Amino acid sequence: MSILIQQATILTMKDTDSPFKGDIRIVGDRIVEIAPHIQAQPGDDIMDGQHKVAMPGLINAHQHTPMSLLRAFSDDLKLMDWLDRKMLPAEARMTPEDIYWGAQLSIAEMIRSGTTAYADMYIHMNEIAEAVTKTGIRASLTRGMVFVEDDGGRRLQEAVDLVQRWSGKAEGRITTMYGPHSPYTCPVEPLREVITMAEQENVPIHIHLAETKEEVVKIRERYGMTPTEYLEEAGMFEKAHVLLAHGVHLNRRDIGRLKGMRGGVAHNPVSNLKLGCGIAPITEMIAQGINVGLGTDGAGSATTIDMFEEIKAATWLQKLDYGDPTRLSAREVLHMSTRGSAGLLNLQDEVGVLEAGRKADLILIDLQKPHLQPVHELESLLAYSVNGADVDTTIVNGRVLMRGRQLLTIDEEELFRQVEVRAKRIVEGI
Ligand SMILES: CSC[C@H]1O[C@@H](n2cnc3c(O)ncnc32)[C@H](O)[C@@H]1O
Ligand SMILES: [Zn+2]
């Protein structure tokens, strides 16, 4: 299997590269050559890249995919009301099959809008792994663990099972993490146990952190420290690669505690805006050398999971918050959504950059649209004007998942039929 993309405008996302016209050759699951002109070989699947941009696929660093079944079901509530009164009761009704179809719905939306890899934290992870296997996307999967109720042991066992059964599966597209849900749902004993497992098995951790002011107050009342100090005291940053979702309410000293950590922070601006959580100080984190990536959170809060919407929200919020339009430039926010997120998923050596030897995870964006002409600064156009519907082609691991906006691994008619019935049943009466 080989693909030759001809005469695209290529944005590699390497530090030193500017966009240039050229060809990309893919053999198997990897990019083998990028050059101004590459000779076609017999059997090449030729793709016309004229008037298109080729760039690394976007990486959604924080998701709860089956929550697409709860899209636009319950909005305009505070986070804890939304979670406790609406999401948790609905989730309690979800069957493993619901999870499978909900995950596929999110994955279809992600492939359509140019996301090639993502990080998921949810329940019934075997079904999500099956959906990932079938659809062809790349994913880091986490069994979310809440330890405030009974039976934390079962959750922990499911987390271990996920890691053992699925790491490296689906042609290597699936990786796994341990997922203690948040400081407010994980008392110190199970938290330390998970950190020890993560260290011993070299498995990363995915956790929510400091999403709301209420969380900060709760953790101070319980433990006399900030949520970030709580995780640091438990040894998390020193012992594991950690994907921290949100990081909205971090003070200067908290940011200092994250310096030198492996992993970093997944910024989810649309979810934070919609739930009224606040604006994460991501430009201060970046200035301190902390890796920051971009995510959407679940469609239950973000409503859409188009990463191009997140890109716009992320950069505009920093400019607004600091009254400074130089904050979080187009290039910086594109870096966050590709290389930054790749680092959070611990895939920094494999994806996030177009380069010979790397995995072939890339997208083609069609520029022949009124809102994408003329092309002065390509990176500005990508950050501020492109939206998910402009993505023409999505390739993951060298396999074409969408071409000319046709999904090739998902039967959307069947998907929509399944989703309609299941979503109605799940929310009835809640
Ligand atoms: C136990 S699996 C993950 C768990 O997280 C919930 N969730 C979704 N969005 C958020 C958010 O913004 N903050 C905290 N928790 C969230 C989801 O409903 C699942 O129950
Ligand atoms: Zn979340």
Automatic annotation (TrEMBL):
Pfam families, A to Z:
Amidohydro_1
- According to its UniProt record, which reaction does this protein catalyse? S-methyl-5'-thioadenosine + H2O + H(+) = S-methyl-5'-thioinosine + NH4(+); S-adenosyl-L-homocysteine + H2O + H(+) = S-inosyl-L-homocysteine + NH4(+)
Residues involved in substrate binding: E91, R143, R154, H181, E211, D297
Q: Which residues form the Amidohydrolase-related domain?
A: 54-400
Documented EC number(s) = 3.5.4.28, 3.5.4.31
Cofactor, free-text remark:
Binds 1 zinc ion per subunit.
Q: Which residues bind Zn(2+)?
A: H62, H64, H208, D297
This protein's cofactor list reads: Zn(2+)
Q: Which HAMAP family match?
A: MTA_SAH_deamin
Protein name (Swiss-Prot/TrEMBL)? 5-methylthioadenosine/S-adenosylhomocysteine deaminase
